[in-house]
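Students often ask why we bother encoding 3D structure as a string. The short answer is that it lets us treat folding as translation between two languages. Here is a chain of 567 residues written in the first language.
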Amino acid sequence: MPDLKKLPKAIMSASPKSGIFFIFGVFILIIIFSDYSIAAFHEQLAVDTRAIALANTVTADPPGIMAIHYNPAGLVNLPDGKFFSMGITVPIIVKTSRFKQDPEFEGYLGGYNDDPLDGTEGTNSSGKMYLPGLNDTIDFLIAPSIGVSHHEPESRWTFAIAEYAPFAIGLKHGDANDPARYGGKSVYQQHLVYSAPAAGYRLTETFAIGMTVGLGQTAMGAEVDMRAPNEIVALTHVLGEATAGLEIPVLSEMTLPPPWFGGGLNPYDQLATLELTLRDDYSPNYNFGILWQPKQWFAFGACYQSSIKAQLTGTYSFKYSEDWQRMVQWFGSSPLLVVSAGVLDLPIEPVEEQTGTVTAEIEFPQRLQMGIKVKPFTCWSLLIDVHWAEWSAVKDNRFTFDQNIQLLQLVKLMGYTHGSRELYLNRNMKDTWHWSIGSELQVLDWLTLRCGYERRVASVRDNRFDLLYALPELENYGTGFGIQMESGVNIDFAAAYLINNSYKIDNNQSTNLNSTEFTDPVYNPYAGLDYEQETTAYIFSLKISMPTILLSDFFKKQYKKLKGLFD
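And here it is in the second language, the structure alphabet:
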């Protein structure tokens, strides 16, 4: 990670002209050589309206009160007095998954190559998000933001506080026959900053610093219909069918009652349904930013955002199929099997459902973003940003349950080494670099037009891809406008279009999706299938900003009108 401690000193000691050309050269080099790199996952999708229009290219020219997130040093540019800002953002994500059997896949045990998912596709029916305070979810994505600021005339300090959602994603596959249900029938992961006090301080006329302390809530949940296409599961079904009539009086009841494994499990049938709901109501973070504005036509900004580490607690439910319950009952159906099950730690008492408490740790990575603003004409600004995130900090997902889980007890026989109380998914994500560019054109005194472009490529590796972390590379096109009214009210609107026409994971390429190795039982529901995904996202955002005195006057007038109706 770049050494931020040396950055302010180096910038301040350099002449403005030489510093500007050096910074501009660095940005051009990063953009030129960034084609090989990978970029953002699901951060900064729906934080601020102006930032959405500029494709998140605002570090050197932060967007009003929401400089709290993008660069708190930018708070010093807010007008004197008290200001209020409120925004609403609606993301619409459309993900279509297609599955096709690999023609070179021979099947299991010389057969079982007629996967019913072959040739199918499914599209999510809606979004999914958690509602703080109500402890419930809705099948819709919406991201509100609200903030207030205060700056005394002639003061070097500016103070502000805001609420917003820097990380958010959620999808639901509502169709009962959607093949994506085995990878994620519904899933959401979000971090809401419910209180972010911040301060900006102007050290000199051209250089400012700022800091934000965020108090947040992290929530995640998933519902997955589970199946296990692999050699061992197929073997139980073959032996179950072969021994259906193998009845040896007394001996069978003492050793291996037919049919073996209670008839076994079909590798393409649903075995269980898993539901998880977890949250952490206190997961803090901080942002630190600098802003250098040596000329009216040039600015440089940098912002470091700390990692967010959450200790989540919640509930879970494993609901088992009838075939699974028959197999568990078979493990306890004879003295020999009871002893064997005890040695191998296998379940012997079938249950329809296991419920209890689950814990997990997740981390949102530390981030660094730097940007420049060039204003060659009084009416036109060009902005360029580079973004870094330490996604390599996400090594895995671990969910720890309060009891032995029957499903995990069985997969230990297939080489699963994380015990019967922990669900482990290897992530091994990558650090990310990417760039973005934005432009603002003030066409009239009261009207500003905006546009931007950002490359967003998933930090998930191809060999760890699954449908829970399901955003691949996306190209982000933003546009919007701002209206400045004489009364002091500012209205901003933005729309963004994100697209990836085709992302492919060939059969046996991902150990979290379609590995055919029986030693990868957790979790590969699409073994033997080639996967292709088409992803499109639409984001719409509206924000209103004004001096708080206007808001206060508005409510006073409404109160007087309401009072007059009852007088």
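Translate back mentally: The two ends are 66 Å apart (CA to CA). Keep this in mind for the problem set.
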